[in-house]
User: What shape does this take?
Amino acid sequence: MSPTTSAMDRKVRRTLLFVGILLLIPVILAVRNYVASTRESKVLASTAPTDERLVVIDGDTMIVAPAALGQTMTSWLQSRKAKTITFELSDHSFQPNSATPSDLTKTRMNQVAALTKASPTLIIHVLEPAEFQSEAIERLDDQRALRLRDGLVARGVPKSRVVIEQEKEEQPAATSHLAVLLSK
Assistant: This one.
């Protein structure tokens, strides 16, 4: 084999490698776009990056923007199939290091109270995390759970329909935050 042929073979190999890479780029981008669109189709509403809500309806998990949660709860109540809906309360749900609910949480309590009045069989479960990072966080969550219950009762929900309990392992929304589970 002559030196000219060897150099030519290297050029051909490089060219073929370059063409192969160029052909793979659209395939990789198509797969990436498919994965992204699949993830987006499972999101119920557009989300705000600062305060999303993890929502679980009969075991199906989704992320909902706070502004869409009221409508999501109403749709759930009107559905005949779904039996439970759970949504978490984030760090933005209360004043920092306090049991005082934020304005958004007060709105959420009004919505939950209205749903409870519309459905005589609805039970509200205020779920505390199964594990806490510290005793101080556990005390604060206890206070917040009581504040939620008292706020719902003040809005006309019978105290017997508001239960404070610890999250169970089989509940899919187990988080490090308080959560509210509504059951029909």
In short: The first helix runs from residue 3 to 41. The mean pLDDT is 79.
